[in-house]
Design brief:
Largest sheet: 6 strands, parallel
Number of helices: 18
Strand content: 5-15%
CATH class of the largest domain: Alpha Beta
Order of helices and strands: HEHEHHEEHEHEHEHEHHEHEHEHHEHHHH
Helix content: 40-55%
Strand order of the largest sheet: 2-1-3-4-5-6
Shape: globular
Number of domains: 2
């Protein structure tokens, strides 16, 4: 305990001295994949023009891939090695995955979540390990907040819990993305009926079971097909992609039928561009419900079992979609979706309310939380933030837990 107090005194002195010498608050972002950065990106973009804040970026697990992970940013980013990061002092450490790195000079740690599909629930949804070392947990919904408490990953009186929402999907509801503009930008005629195929990563995903056949069948049926691969499906390791080069496999099929392989790691623009979405079990499928458009689910029991997806998440996906098992089923389901796009609309909206807290305002809440954490007053803004945001009172936490 004495050593702990001494270390804290040293760190406090280090913080005060660093702020006197520099004056700016320093935020370190760590990412495992480009998709991780896409999740954090709305917060970075909201804060990057504040002259009192500087951002630094690293990739602690694969330093050699850091430039690639952050390559989609149009800004010139300060990308540094994990070793250099460990030598520096930061005012906040921000990640969109369970990425803990050693930072000896101490830092408040913030974890966001990069999906709502429930995959690997023992890590991300009802953790079997403690999450009490994190200073802030930006929860997407009450369901996961409740699950963390029930599992014991955090306490019922946790001061780290913040019901923020999901900044990544604010753009799906705020009108900033337009279907026709996006389609033109990727070379697809907006007059064409467009179907997006977004399988999850895994050797047990629908991509490995029927991906090529499905993309070919949809193209032959006259649809413009957008394929959005998960970042991991581009990785040659068997555990991620089944050891297959999916870009080489799919690009010729898509070119032949006027389709497109999505290059960006953020699926949001491609979702807005698509009239129907097909997935197996991906967070993208749930996110698509925000657009209230038809969803088609490929039934992959082995995927569900091997990726530890709880039955309630499977049920929600099933309730909100048409379930298919073959490519022939898929083309029939797509045709039905175009003929009756409002079918299941009420169910889709109910699930959105369950999985996404106050969509459209999550970025504002996350920004406010970060300003508080790094001990800065927000810059003046015309926009106001809902009073419904956290921190939750103890009474509210217990109420959410019992629901």
């Amino acid at each position: 305990m004495i050593l702990g107090k001494a270390a804290q005194l040293v760190r406090n002195a280090d913080k005060q001295l660093s702020r006197k010498l520099d004056g700016r608050r320093r935020i370190l972002i760590n990412a495992r994949t480009a998709m991780n950065f896409a999740v954090v990106s709305p917060i970075y973009k909201a804060l990057r023009n504040d002259p009192r804040i500087s951002f630094w970026f690293t990739a602690s697990e694969q330093p050699a891939r850091a430039e690639q992970i952050y390559s989609e940013s149009r800004d010139k980013l300060d990308v540094i090695s994990p070793k250099r990061a460990a030598l520096n002092r930061f005012d906040a450490y921000l990640v969109a995955d369970v990425l803990w790195m050693i930072l000896p000079r101490g830092v408040p740690r913030v974890m966001m979540f990069h999906g709502v599909a429930g995959k690997y629930s023992h890590i991300y949804d009802s953790p079997e390990h403690t999450m009490r070392a994190w200073d802030r947990l930006f929860f997407i919904n009450r369901r996961r907040l409740r699950n963390f408490m029930v599992s014991g990953a955090i306490s019922e009186s946790s001061t780290a819990a913040r019901l923020v929402g999901y900044p990544k999907i604010d753009c799906l509801v705020d009108g900033s993305l337009r279907r026709n503009d996006i389609l033109k930008s990727i070379g697809i005629d907006p007059a064409k009926r467009t179907v997006m195929y977004a399988p999850t990563w895994s050797p047990y995903s629908s991509l490995n079971a029927m991906g090529e056949e499905l993309v070919r069948a949809l193209g032959d049926a006259g649809y413009a097909v957008i394929v959005k691969l998960h970042d991991r499906s581009r990785d040659p390791q068997y555990i991620h992609s089944g050891g297959i080069d999916w870009i080489s496999r799919l690009e010729p099929i898509l070119r032949k039928n006027g389709g497109c392989l999505a290059e960006g790691s953020d699926a949001s623009p491609y979702m807005v561009a698509s009239d129907v979405l097909i997935t197996d079990h991906s967070s993208v499928g749930f996110e698509y419900l925000l657009l209230d458009r038809p969803l088609i689910r490929i039934d992959m029991p082995d995927l569900i079992a091997r990726t530890n997806i709880p039955a309630d998440y499977v049920r929600m996906m099933t309730d909100a979609s048409a379930t298919i098992r073959t490519c022939r089923d898929a083309t029939s389901a797509v045709e039905q979706a175009f003929s009756d796009p409002d079918r299941l609309s009420a169910v889709r909206k109910d699930i959105v309310n369950e999985l996404f807290y106050d969509p459209g305002n999550a970025t504002q809440r996350a920004v406010r939380e970060l300003y508080e954490l790094i001990e800065l007053d927000p810059l003046p803004s015309r926009q106001s933030i809902s009073d419904q945001s956290l921190p939750l009172s103890t009474t509210e936490r217990l109420t959410h837990l019992r629901r």
